[in-house]
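Page 47, continued from p. 46.
Same chain as before, 569 aa.
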Amino acid sequence: MKYLCVHCDKRFEHEGEGKPRCPECMRVHGIEKIGKEAPDAERPKWLVPAVVAGVAAAIVAGYVIWARETPDTVSGEAPLRPLERSELLGHLRNLGARAEDELVRMLEAGEPVEQWAEEATDGAGSAGAKAEAIVEAIRERASKQAFVPWPTSSPRDTPIHGPARTLEALAQDGARKKLYPLEVAALAVAGLRAVGVDAMVADVYAFPGDRSPPDPSGHFGYYGVAVYQGEPGEGTPRLFDPYGGRGTEPEEDDVRVLTDVQAVGAALNHRAIHLLVNEGDSARAFELAQNALELDRRSPQIRSVRGAVLVVSGGSEEGAQEFEAAAQLRSDAPRHNNLAGLALAKQDVDRAAREVAAALERHPDFAGGHATLAAVHLSRDEVDESGAELRRAEELDPELPMLPMLWANYYLATHEAERAAEKAMEAVERRPHDWTVRLNAARVLRVAGRYDEMRRQAHRILEDAPAGQEQAVRQLIEQVLGPTALEEVAEELEDEEWAEGDLPNADFQLGGDSALLGGQDAPGPSLGGGGSLLGEGEEGGGPLLNLGDPSTLQLREPGSQLRLDLGEE
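Result:
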């Protein structure tokens, strides 16, 4: 039997019944039995080289992965050309910005996208021909209703995706997926880069002849693909529109080719909107909006979203400055419309009228602009004109999120409380996760005498309140809807139980010329489509803004303001 001494590493044989003793160091402790070894001649001669080669390959592969994931040392602004991921990470690090891995990979193909791009461009020779083939492949999927262009007035329920998941979304005919323009443009760019074309993302603000803006909200942006004839960034690129399939290219002043760093900033901006509206996470939304701004300070969309986050978080003055900055960067219809909504929220109706007039002068078929104009007319008690503008907005975009609540306020002004209640509930159906919309609807239900339904909405609002803010939301509900709003659903209360002193905004009248809370549902900078409640009375401290964020609704009354402290910048 063979043994090993662990002290001196001596191998020896021992037969017999006594304890084995090491013949070298004479120890009996630390002796281990070992199995019978195969003769050296039986060991495969290729084993050692194969193991060494395998270890070397693992080291090389590990280095490649490490090199790709480790930020390069870079300086200055990002160049206008495709960046390796390590370069991109280096620029993100220099700018102090962080992004989720999927957003960092927004322009990377991956195996499925590479295969798709190779098949789509098979036989295409030049860069332009390959771009045409990629766009044609995407438009073919659009013709099969795999995805549909939609006016991005508010974010969809799911966050922005990278190219691989966007490609998956295009697979099913008739799925009618709501994709963002940035997702489709990123898929096209990633596919083109996979087949050797140095394509870039382009931010498009307008197309010749269009009577409505490509990005009605002014928050998301509209994106296409830029392909240069020579080196990226040199000369005038050719622009492609895979999302909408337009054959006309934008004018030079209406497009901006983005660096990869700025493209990641646009993706971060989409994520910030999602967090703000659908998840109620204002603190995280503010962080991402700030990161996005670090990556692209020339983006009017990022300025608008950062402004919205600030306003709903209590920083109304700084938020308003961001909206002004966005309009200075790009004085177009969406930016004017957002300023109009902000002016309505401050009850500056004259400025709101000027801003929305400027928006509609640029794009006469801008549905959001007509909706804002309807709110302006309603604030001036011009009911007939308001109705005409609402019908025009509905004709242009029947799915416009802000329309149902605007109609509800219109019907309150025309003393049709039941129709107002129906429209209020339609607004809830369109935005079921937005409890600021529910609060608007609950007030309309109260006016219509539907107290049980009002209480159901109030309880649902409290259930959806962000963790840690339940008490603040409860106080807000009672201030807005009255002290009995959160009672268990029971028989309807008599009208006299709603004493004027129970409500913080006693200037509301169902009759006469006033509308809900002395104001209207102003679309303005709303991300969630709920508009703004203009609740400032003679002693009020300011408007109640509804920017689509259920966690930071604030009541601008003395002693009742909800505010999220975001700390120092």
